[in-house]
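anyone seen this seq b4? input:
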Amino acid sequence: MDYVTREEAGLIPPTSISRISSSLGIFGHWTAGPTSQTPREIQRFHMETRGWTDIAYSWLVDDAGVIYEARGWGRAGGHTQGYNSVAHAVCGIAGSEGDVTDAMLDGIATVFNEHDRLYGSGFHLPHRAARGAATFCPGNTITQFIYEGDFTTTGDLDMDAVAQIGEFHQD
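predicted toks r here
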């Protein structure tokens, strides 16, 4: 399993940053687009089309299980209305059920586990479960995976290194 920093993914600096010191939990999302989307393309859509300050999510995971730093830990997101300043989000780069792979689910589990290590055990919910959300996101496969709650991973990513990066990037 690989980890890619914001810089390595080609993400540009956000137009502003809001920090959060704690997190109540983490939401699972999907991009609802092709697996060929790059983190920079997702960020460009969020910033240029939606008018947001940065990519919406804390983390992205592709179909190969590669974990991409988006906003990272400790930063308010643009992912789930009503929860952006109290929770984080991981997003699978997938637009249909057939795009969701075991490797992607393993990457999502890795991010969930790291969230709990850093912030304590909080909620793990699909985007569609957020109060007031009227969405199919993140599809049935990721939703079922989250509700089953087995976040045992097969990857060998050293998340200690990932946590340290969040302290130093683009501030």
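DSSP finds five helices and six strands in the chain. Strands lie at 3-4, 25-30, 59-61, 67-69, 88-92, 123-126. kinda curious what u guys think
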